[in-house]
Amino acid sequence: MATAQQLNTQFGINKRLRFSDDAPVKGMPPDSRPAGSLGAASGLIIAEIDNAQATASLCLQGAHLMSWRPKNQAVPVVWLSRDAKLAAGKSIRGGAPVCWPWFGAHAIESGFPGHGYARTVPWQVIESGSEPDGATRLTLRLVESEKTRAQWPHASKLDLTVIVGETLRMELTTENTGATDFVISEALHTYLQIGDIGAVRVTGLDGCDYWDKVGSSTLRKQQRAITFSGETDRVYINTSAECVIEDGKLKRRIHVAKSGSLSTVVWTPWAEKAGKMGDMGQPEGWREMLCVESANAIENVVKVAAGARHTLIVEYRAEPVQ
C-alpha cells in the first residue's frame, strides 16, 4: 500500500487535503479526540480535509469517515467517540462505517463479521479533486484479498466517494464485474453528534413500517416523530424519505437526504448496552450521538445484475434553529 508521503504527492491538494499517519482528527475539539497517536502505533493513514467550508478526517482502513464539521457549526455534525480505538483490522466507534456486502449478521456463516468486512480492510485512494463550489472530493476503492474473496466470492468493485463542504455527500457504488447476478445489503452507519439523546426527535418517518430489533424482532408502524427514552434499534423499510434530527440543545437541525436506499436504521444503545461496549466515550458519551443510517436491508436488499452498478447516495446538512 502507498505511504502517506506517496499519497500526498499523487493526491494531496495544497493545504486542503493531506494524508498523515501522526495527526489528530480534524474537526474535533482537542478534548474530544481519541486518546493516543493515530500514527505508528495504529499503522493507519488518515486523510485530513480542511477547506473554506469544512474540516473532516477519513481513515483509509474501511474508507471510514471519522469526523465532519462545517465551519458554520461550533461542534461536529459527525460524532466520533472519545474512546475510539484505531487499530489495524478493527472497526472504529463513530464516524460513518461502511457496512457491506451484508448488513447485520451474515445469513449463513456465523463466523463472518457483523455488517460485513468492508469497514475493517484496506481501501486505496483512486481520485481526488475540488468541486466548483470549493468542496473537496475524495474517492477510494476497496482492496480485495484472499480473505475478502473467501467471504465474498463474487467479481465486484466497491467505491466510496466523499465530498466535503458545507454539506457532506457520500456515494457508495457497487459494480458487478462478473457474469452472474448477486445480492447485497448495505448501510452507511453514520453516527451524528447531538446535544442529548433525551431531547432530540427525528421526523420524516411518520407512517413508515419498521422492524423493532430490541427484544424479539417485531414489525411495527411509526406514529408521529421518533423520540428516545431507552435502547432503540429500528430498521424502517420501503422508504426513501429525508429525515431530520431536531436538536433543541445544540439549536440545529441535521437533514439526512438519500437516494438508492429504501431502508433507514435508527439506533441508540442507551446506558446498559453502551457500558458493555467499552468504547462509547464514558461515562455518558452515548447521550451525545444518534445513528440515522441510510441502508438497504431485510426486504430492501439489492440485486445487482451482471455488468450493472448500484449507488447509495446520502447527503447531510446542518441548519441553525433559533
What do these coordinates show?
It is a single chain. The chain is globular and about 50 Å long. It has a single domain, classed as Beta-galactosidase, Chain A, domain 5 (Distorted Sandwich). About 4% of the residues have low confidence. β6 and β7 form a beta hairpin. The longest helix has 8 residues. With 322 residues, it is mostly beta strands. The N and C termini lie far apart (48 Å). Strands 5, 11, 12, 14, 15, 16, 19 and 20 form an 8-stranded antiparallel beta sheet that branches.
Structure characteristics:
globular; eight-stranded antiparallel beta sheet; 7% helix; Beta-galactosidase, Chain A, domain 5; 322 residues; 3 helices; mainly beta
Secondary structure elements and pairings:
Blueprint: H1 4-11, E1 17-20, E2 46-50, E3 54-59, E4 64-70, E5 98-99, E6 123-130, E7 136-142, H2 146-151, E8 156-164, E9 168-176, E10 182-184, E11 186-188, E12 191-193, E13 200-203, E14 209-212, E15 218-221, E16 232-237, E17 243-247, E18 252-259, E19 263-268, H3 270-277, E20 289-296, E21 302-304, E22 309-320
Antiparallel strand pairs: 1-2, 2-3, 3-4, 5-11, 6-7, 7-8, 8-9, 9-22, 10-21, 11-20, 12-20, 13-17, 14-15, 14-16, 16-19, 17-18, 18-22, 19-20
**Computed structural class:** mainly beta
Task: Note the overall shape.
Answer: globular
Q: Number of helical runs?
A: 3
**Helix content range:** under 10%
Q: N-to-C terminal Cα separation, in Å?
A: 48 Å
Mean pLDDT over all positions:
93
| CATH architecture descriptor name | Distorted Sandwich
- Stretches where pLDDT is under 50 for at least 5 consecutive residues are 29-41
